[in-house]
Amino acid sequence: MATFVLVPGGWHGSWSFETVVPLLESAGHTVHALTLTGLRPDDDDATVATANLDTHADDVLRLLDRTRTTGATLVGHSYGGMVTAAAADRAGGRIARLVHLDAYVPRDGESCWSSTTERYREAFAAGAASTGYAVRPPDGMDSRTRPHPLASFLQAVRLTGALDRVPRREFVYCSGWEDRTPFAGLRTRLRADPGWRVHDLPTGHDAMREDPEAVAALLLG
Prior knowledge:
By secondary structure, the chain is of the alpha/beta class. It contains 10 helices and 8 strands.
């Protein structure tokens, strides 16, 4: 049986996977859905202000340490792909599979900011204008979303090459929001990379909420 570690995207918490978790657990697997530092309801302003990409990668590594997990499947959604990439690179061979669910797949030195489109850079900047350190959730998101630590969007990832030794690396492209997705170029890049397998899902960005059965089936495949 597998152990899944699910890492949400920007502004979201573990609740974003709430309909996928029981599907994986009913198949006999162990599932840990994370809420990253700075996104927890009781996190104070100082915690939000100081949380960055390293902080979030450490959240994943602490979970692996605490649960003594090896052979993990890391699933990162959206910004969460930055986190799972950084964590996998530092995990000392404890990751068996990476799944980037409509998520950024950074190269060394890239950040969420540098990897996204101008549309989203403008949204990040506008969202942080009132505090300078926390990006408010975009309009129309779930009421449970939280302001996201700006530093985590800005910090460049440092990769040693260990990520490239993860045995299974998969990218899931959600094709139901073609007019806004920042991941079209990434899909093209990874399709040409023999180290990656690319899947397409005909959903919007929040695939795990729009079609949890399809996401679970892909993860169980």
